[in-house]
Write a structure and sequence with these properties.
Elements: E1 8-12, H1 23-31, E2 34-39, H2 48-54, E3 65-70, H3 77-95, E4 101-105, H4 115-125, E5 131-134, H5 139-147, E6 158-162, H6 163-176, E7 179-183, H7 189-198, E8 205-209, E9 217-219, E10 233-238, H8 250-273
Parallel strand pairs: 1-4, 1-5, 2-3, 2-4, 6-7
Antiparallel strand pairs: 7-10, 8-9, 8-10
Helix pairs in contact: 3-4
Length: 274
């Protein structure tokens, strides 16, 4: 009798703050048979995903095996594809033993994640495999939480693009979207700064690196960003010109403004009496 395949969970572990790990991610990582983490250098066990998890679930609290899978920091398909296939095969060995496996990935599995490469390999090699994707906090929402600039209101649109691609089409994007999130912006800050200056939009940009971690940096002026590549970096470009559109007509807005002034006057009067 053929042994039943284990189940694979692709689990997003967030952007860096271990307290942002979801309850479901915590439960699965604590209890499954195997927890796999992507590593940058083969055999190093240097994994940002593991670092995030370790702040919430200690290694000794994990009931299952810890498995580190190598994902090269390369754009060469001849380097990447064999590594992806090797990682998938490592998972398959355990899944065919009937073990349930978590693949832990930074951020969210569906957003610019290493999970996408593994998923494609597994769909080819093990098409009957049951997969559950568990979402996590993404940099797309973590960054606005740090800048305290909303992505959009009910009448606005935002987009997320790789920064290198965004450079070539930014003039068009700012016409179509109210907020543009430029991910992986570390290498192109000087070019982006020059472009935004030429468009008279530099004041609309905020730079954040290593959001939600103890290494977090926020710069309101791109000209102040130190030289050097920061991998976990993003620029939020906010051109939200329709603030207040949901409040109705200009007459209603005038009425609201008057009410605000009355509230402020009342508060000042109470303070004076006190």
């Amino acid at each position: 009798m053929t042994k039943q395949l284990g189940k694979l969970y692709a689990v997003g572990v967030g952007t860096g703050d271990s307290e942002l790990l979801t309850l479901k991610a915590h439960r699965l990582i604590s209890t499954v048979d195997v927890v796999a983490f992507p590593e940058k250098d083969k055999g190093s066990q240097a994994s940002f995903a593991h670092q995030i998890v370790a702040g919430a679930v200690k290694d000794e609290e994990m009931q299952g095996e810890k498995l580190f899978l190598h994902f090269p920091m390369s754009r060469d398909p001849q380097v990447n594809i064999p590594a992806w296939r090797e990682a998938a095969l490592s998972l398959i060995v355990r899944l065919q033993q009937g073990k349930d496996v978590v693949f832990a990935t930074e951020g969210d599995p569906s957003v610019y994640s290493t999970w996408a490469y593994i998923q494609e390999e597994l769909q080819d090699l093990l098409p009957l495999l049951e997969i559950e994707i568990v979402p996590g906090i993404t940099s797309i929402t973590a960054i606005p939480a740090q800048t305290q600039i909303p992505l959009a209101d009910g009448q606005e649109r935002f987009c997320v693009v790789p920064a290198t691609w965004g450079l070539s089409c930014l003039p068009r994007l700012v016409e179509e979207f109210d907020t543009i999130m430029l991910i992986k912006a570390g290498r192109i800050v000087p070019q982006l700064t020059a472009l935004l200056e030429s468009m008279d939009m530099l004041a609309c940009a905020t730079y954040v690196s290593h959001a939600t971690t103890d290494k977090q940096e926020v710069y309101q002026d791109l000209r102040d960003v130190p030289e050097g590549h920061r991998y976990f970096s993003m620029v939020q470009l906010s051109v939200r010109s329709r603030r207040g559109v949901l409040r109705g007509t200009s007459v209603e807005q005038d009425s609201t403004d008057q009410s605000v002034q009355q509230i402020k006057a009342s508060s000042l009067a109470k303070e004076a009496v006190a």
